[in-house]
Amino acid sequence: MKRLILVRHSVAHDEKAGESDFDRQLSSKGIKLAHEIAANTRQYFTSETTYLTSPAKRASDTCSIFMKSLGAETKNLLE
Question: Do 6 and 45 meet the contact criterion of CB atoms below 8 Å apart?
């Protein structure tokens, strides 16, 4: 059975003056939460899972944390 799992980016730093929304990075809380959520949802992901992410910094960092936590290969990433 095919399954679609949507994961929103984790908590990011507030936008700073002169910084674009696109470049906002995950906060330390966001990094911790991304690791926790990846661990708690591990059973839904397989080696066949394809990951699709926005190129926005906070989204791609969240996806990267998921992929590393789940042992996914970079060949499964689409940007």
Answer: no
Mean pLDDT in residue range 39-48:
90
Q: Which of 25, 33, 29 is CA-nearest to residue 61?
A: 25
Plot region of 71 (φ>0 → left; ψ -120 to 50 → alpha; else → beta): left
User: Tell me: the pLDDT tens digits for 17-42?
Assistant: 788 989 999 999 999 999 999 999 99
Residue type, 70: L
Q: Which residue has the tokens 């674009």?
A: 20
SS3 6: coil
How far is residue 15's CA from residue 32's CA, in Å, rounded to a whole number?
20
Strands (DSSP E) along the chain, which ranges? 51-52, 77-78
Pair 6, 44: CB distance under 8 Å: no
**pTM for the model:** 0.85
